[in-house]
Amino acid sequence: MTSQVSLSSDPSQPSNKPALEPSLSNGISEVEVWKREPSHRVFVNRSLNLDKIKFFGFDMDYTLAVYKSPQYETMGFTMLKDRLISIGYPTDIKEFEYDPTFPCRGLWFDKLYGNILKVDAYGNILVCVHGFRFLKGSEIGDLYPNKFVNLDEKRIYVLNTLFHLPETYMLACLIDYFTTSKEYERNKDGVRCGELYMSYQSIFQDVRGAVDWVHFYGNLKSETVANLERYVHKDPRLPVLMDRIRECGKKTMIITNSEFEYTNKIMEYLTDFPETKGRKWTSYFDFVVVDAKKPLFFEEGTILRKVNTTSGKLSIGHHMGKLEQHCAYSGGSCEVISQMIGAQGKDVLYVGDHIFGDILRSKKQRGWRTFLVVPELSTEVHVWTDQSELFNKIKSLEQTLSIIYKNLDSSNMEKPDISNVQRAMMDTVHELDLSYGMLGSLFRSGSRLTFFSSQVQRFADIYAASVINLIHYPFTYMFRAPAMLLPHESTVSHENTIPADDFTIARQRSVNNENKYAKVQHVPHLRPETPTKVTHHHDDDDFEETSSNSSDKST
Fold it and tell me: Which tens digits make up the pLDDT trace of 162-186?
């Protein structure tokens, strides 16, 4: 590959000129580093050297094929209503209309009390909604001691994917309907109407079953295929990206849970452009796996069968031969596929949108490197930059609070009145939260990171709003993770000089003192020698192991 890589596949578009931005660390401005435009950027949790990646694996739904919002969710919500009515739910729910400002990903549903919860990484409740009613702090404390709940799968269901958005809103609609309707008497764990009792658990089971029915037996896929332009984003850079990956000597594979017939029609649409006429979509991939049944695919998997691409029928028995291009295979497992293609684990970068089915399992079970696609990131970054006045106001209030306490220590017996500052802080944070939507940001609530955010940090090596963002990087690129600073590091500037005191422990060994132990002969080693070469491996892709001459770069 040549050293010069175009950042824009379309010559008619303005070139992507990286921005020179100050790098902020430890509270001070350091050297300026080159960064791409935020909308083009891939963000890094753990360093990853693309030069070491031999296989690029892709999910399809919400990764290669991104469904248009709110059109797609609205269609799913409408079909969900019809299914619920067909199994006996009141026809009144026909009046429900999907509201895209309400749901977000990463929420928990409490099947016992019927509450939608937004929690942090440890189960502390940040927001609690019953139907459409947001519970006060005291009400949350009455239901959940210390405003905390465990992730118990018997009680809690995690609404983690974009497919869950219509389901999340339907649960809120139904619980609001049953708990506010005069015909129903509300109990702590359900509602009653005469001899009819509906627990929140049973409502959840009905909704969950209806969602599965819509996806597996309903018209969701057929309506999508019949109206591709309305429901599916199409980007001419996708086939360009796939070709560039393979031109660099890498292998590409698609691993999707969708069946071949649906995958075929979606991928034909996504790769059909005037300049690609007559080219099969399978030519962009070295390996095609459908009906993967993730996350089972990353565990024991299922039988691997070859797909007849003309009829869509599966072969009988296990496929034992090589995986061929322009062919499609159904099922299988990560272990079997890896053996067939010669993948080792860390030489695979898997790109998906499902934090559990795609990212967590591929990371934990098989050690694949992971790229999480978060379409909502575009909105998150927009609010982050657009609402700078609110962020500055929060900083100003923090400054006011620090001044109030500036000259106070344990000898002061008077309690300063900070109520106005606290109220202003709460109001500002609330206004900022609502800038993202009714349930706030996907990644945080005020200063607290959400459960979803912690999962992204833990299991996604890199993440971006779109897989297309890879087109803005050379395939020898070294993604470098920023330092993960603790409060004692992020709030103490390097400009400060902290004198040593009685509690300061000198742990840095003086090289000049090494020789004073050299003459000891009674034991082989009296103490360990100070390392003279790099022994502390901070990243998954250390320079020592790098086989190429690519240099470290900043994203």
Answer: 999 999 999 999 999 999 999 999 9
**Of 350, 308, 54, the residue nearest 319 (C-alpha):** 308
CA 357/CA 520 separation, integer angstroms: 58
Which member of 51, 59, 353, 461 is catalytic? 59
270 sits in which H/E element: helix 260-270
Cβ burial 462-474 (10 Å sphere, 16+ → b, else e): bbbbbbbbbbbbb
Tell me the C-alpha distance between 411 and 504, whole Å.
Answer: 26
Least confident piece of the model among 6-10, 310-314, 406-410, 482-486 = 6-10
Could you report the per-residue pLDDT of 221-274, keeping only the tens digit for each? 999 999 999 999 999 999 999 999 999 999 999 999 999 999 999 999 999 999
Rounded Cα distance between 45 and 484, Å, is: 9
Surface-to-core class of residue 447, CB atoms within 10 Å of its CB (0-12 exposed, 13-18 middle, 19+ buried)? exposed
**In the numeric block, which tokens belong to residue 488?**
């004692």
Active site residue: 51, 61, 206, 291, which one?
A: 61
| Torsion (CA) 28, 31, 35, 38 in degrees, nearest 10 | 10
Query: Would you call 541 a catalytic residue per the annotation?
Result: no
Tokens representing 209 are 């079953």
| Catalytic site includes residue 61 | yes
